[in-house]
Task: inverse folding
């Protein structure tokens, strides 16, 4: 039997937003998932297994707060659409599948689209048992109540074929980390698996680097690498008379942004007004035309990168979770204004350092604060970005100085602090810097200077 295993897709197709300061590609994950399914079907897989974090639900939905506007009603319909898109894609293959949720999934919405996800399935002489475990105290997963009762019952089933157990979290191997990837009761789970004599294979996700096949007391354990990061890996396990073998595949073999020019944009004063810098989404307002401008840049072939200083975190004005919430809401506003899901940036970089005035040592320093290029340099490495044709659109002197350090061509916009920056002697000393009224007019300038390959 051939089992294809995909985990941690973190899809954001209709859900707005993207992963900050990260190699993860939430926005592209679904399109590449479709390619992976085609390859899996062509390889003759008998069953597809998805072990959680199917979509990437915004933290403000998973852990809502009444301190700021609750964005859950705004985002829940999009979450449902993304689950339905995954189900439609799986159903279209005609290949049987098992799917379970992870800690980044919204359990009620997941169940509304996949009501049979936790049912035990017998297929080609094997029994597939999936669990809907949760994180509890200190983000530590624990198998209890309904899931534990199901486990005990399945392990005691007298006429069961060899079993394959599916869970998002790790029973084994033990991961040495400050973050609890393993179950609190992992030793108990692995002991029960082994003592039953029925569990052949255990598949997990959650730990993004993944693990190789490892055996413990007659049970084989495997943890898949997260799918949402290039090259978008998945595994096929072959179960035969000679045991279990594992083969890893890469869905994409080349960087998706190879050869594309960069449009690096500041956030506050360029895309949105300055009013949301020290508070929640209530004050997040677009500078008119920002959504269509970003969409136009992407349609022209640019990779759009937001690079923004959010020292408000380091200075104690808002927690980082609120900045993430604001970015998700910003992406929603961009899509709403442009009427197109593609009116969102491709890459998001932001600094939270507060320098000498930081409220905590963890926020001190300034090596990621513009004009430093560290975060964008990191993104270049993550995503294979080209730097030979890069532009920086900003409203402050730090944006212009960043452009010089990075080797990008600067454009000063007169929104935000642009009028004040224009008068600075430091700006005038830079020389040869283009000036534009808004991001919309800067986009027109970029199109004039950028000539796509014929």
Result:
């Amino acid at each position: 039997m051939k089992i294809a295993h995909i985990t941690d897709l973190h899809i954001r197709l209709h859900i707005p937003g993207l992963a900050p300061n990260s190699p993860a590609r939430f926005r592209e994950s679904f399109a590449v998932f479709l390619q992976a399914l085609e390859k899996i079907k062509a390889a003759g897989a008998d069953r597809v297994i998805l072990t959680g974090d199917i979509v990437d639900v915004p933290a403000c939905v998973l852990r809502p707060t009444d301190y700021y506007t609750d964005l859950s009603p705004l985002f829940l319909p999009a979450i449902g659409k993304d689950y339905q898109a995954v189900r439609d894609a799986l159903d279209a293959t005609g290949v049987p599948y098992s799917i379970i949720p992870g800690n980044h999934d919204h359990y009620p919405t997941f169940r509304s689209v996949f009501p049979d996800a936790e049912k035990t399935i017998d297929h080609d002489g094997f029994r597939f048992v999936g669990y809907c475990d949760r994180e509890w105290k200190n983000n530590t997963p624990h198998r209890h109540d309904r899931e534990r009762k199901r486990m005990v019952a399945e392990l005691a089933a007298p006429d069961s074929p060899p079993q394959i157990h599916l869970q998002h979290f790790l029973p084994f191997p033990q991961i040495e980390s400050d973050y609890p990837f393993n179950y609190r009761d992992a030793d108990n789970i692995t002991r029960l698996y082994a003592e039953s004599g029925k569990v052949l294979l255990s598949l997990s996700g959650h730990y993004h680097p993944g693990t190789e096949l490892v055996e413990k007391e007659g049970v084989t354990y495997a943890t898949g690498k997260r799918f949402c990061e290039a090259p978008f890996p998945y595994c096929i396990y072959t179960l035969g008379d000679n045991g279990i073998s594992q083969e890893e595949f890469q869905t994409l073999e080349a960087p998706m942004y190879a050869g594309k020019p960069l449009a690096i944009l500041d956030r506050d004063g360029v895309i949105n007004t300055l009013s949301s810098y020290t508070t929640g989404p209530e004050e997040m307002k677009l500078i008119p035309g920002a959504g269509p401008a970003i969409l136009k840049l992407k349609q022209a072939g640019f990779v759009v990168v937001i690079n923004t200083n959010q020292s408000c975190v380091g200075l104690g004005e808002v927690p980082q979770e609120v900045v993430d919430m604001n970015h998700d809401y910003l992406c929603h506003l961009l899509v709403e204004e442009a009427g197109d899901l593609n009116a969102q940036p491709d890459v998001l970089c932001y600094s939270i350092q507060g320098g000498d005035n930081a409220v905590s040592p963890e926020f001190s320093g300034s090596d990621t604060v513009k004009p430093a290029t560290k975060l964008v340099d990191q993104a270049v490495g993550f995503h294979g970005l080209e730097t030979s044709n890069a532009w920086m659109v900003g409203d402050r002197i730090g944006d212009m100085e960043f452009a010089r350090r990075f080797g990008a061509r600067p454009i000063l916009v007169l929104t935000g602090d642009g009028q004040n920056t224009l008068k600075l002697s430091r700006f005038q000393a830079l020389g040869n810097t283009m000036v534009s009224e808004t991001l919309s007019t800067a986009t027109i300038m970029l199109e004039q200077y950028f000539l796509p390959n014929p």
